[in-house]
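Hi F.,

I've been meaning to write this up properly since the lab meeting, where we talked about keeping a consistent format for the predictions we share between groups. The idea is simple: the sequence comes first, exactly as it goes in, then the structure tokens exactly as they come out, then a line or two of notes. No screenshots and no reformatting. I'm using this chain as the first example so we have something concrete to point to.
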Amino acid sequence: NQNLTQDFAKAIYNDTPTLKTAEITGRKGDMQINPDGTKTMEVGGKKMIYQWNDDLNIVTQQTEESKRAGEILGNLKLGCVSSKDSSDTDIDTNIIDIDSIPDTLTTEQVDISDAVGSGAFKTAYNLKGQPDLLVVLLKPRYRATEIKKEIGYLKQLEALGIKTPRRYKKITFIDTSMPKPNVKRHGLVVQKIKGAWDIKLRQKGIVPLVGVLDNSNNQTLEDLKRLQKIFSKNSNLCVWDLQGLVAEDGQLYIMDPQYVDMQTNSKHNSAQLDALQGFEKNILEHHKRFTDKTLNHIVYIDKELWDSPDDALKQKILSDAE
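Output, unedited:
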């Protein structure tokens, strides 16, 4: 009887603190016994780790690689270096109570019906009831070393004073919408960049989307100038697959670096500087065209006439000005 089995498991695991973190190792796939007594997994076989989840009262499972990824995220120092003028301070940490977010999330808290964005080994989803946050979940087929490397690259960028989205908390996720909700996935709760549009900055000549240009303003230009100064000061710096997010308030964030090279050929550094300068030129040209179309004309009006109590006269002055 499944219910009896679950009740027994609850009694054993939930009431025994030392068993709450206990793990059982198994293997998915056939095992071959070699002549010398050693064992070999069949191609495609996986080492599985099973653990009782006392929040959901179910047994969860994950691969050995998934567990390693979780340990990497667990050891990650969360938060990021606050660059000058960063919008980290725009988020009211008194309103966002990170400690109130459970360590284990399910489809009750995470909206997996519509992904906000997706990368090589992770997907971002909205966190229900938390408009300033996203949950970034690792995809099933990834290598823990890739996560560790990207975290290292982000830290390198932050150390240089480059703005990146803030990272808050490591979580695990169980998809309870599945018939057997027992596959454990690891992820992070991160800052949601409001109204953001992404921009590729790998090379000069990439035309930004209209949404990027519409979001861009003086803040974007300031952030671009800061980036240009950082690349100019570090003449051997090159960020592979350099890409950013332009928020609705105009702030520019760098995200998802594939590699940060601090000893590159200066030609690569110059190419990225050209891309940043090209983006700056795109913004200025876009807003110049907009300004030309909606140019406001200044009309000088006699102050004594304007200050008179005659509303009809004011309306006539405005009508004549138009």
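Notes:
The chain has two domains: 2-30+39-83+101-191, 197-293.
Residues 80-90 have pLDDT under 50 and may be disordered.

If this format works for you, I'll send the rest the same way.

G.
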